[in-house]
């Protein structure tokens, strides 16, 4: 077993882009209403586009339909374009704070994590994005999937220092 030095606080935080970009601004509670509205609209789009449909997800994993691949592919393209534009024009947040995109190193843990994520997605018919929309449409059994996702996130946080990064 090889000796590994412990990560410094900055190194550990740099693994999570969200931690680097956390805002130092303090807002009143009602500033979060905009996120609620965007979340509700996002959920409606998910429902209307059938992104949350268990049947559509199963079609994707059985290679029977292009529907979900088209949605995921277009989301990847939008994400790539967004990151390109943020870097090229040094775009800041709506409050003028810089957006820091730290480089990520590839490691085999990403393959294992992706496989576990994909297996869970195929088995449950849900990934984290549409969970709340599925629950909102009345598929209350998805609460089990939500609780499992929260438990999985907790386990990862607990084991994080022992995992290869």
From TrEMBL:
Pfam families: DUF6691. The lineage of its organism: Bacteria, Pseudomonadati, Bacteroidota, Sphingobacteriia, Sphingobacteriales. This is YeeE/YedE family protein. Keywords: Membrane, Transmembrane, Transmembrane helix. The chain crosses the membrane at residues 33-55, 67-86, 111-133, 139-159. The keyword Transmembrane helix applies.
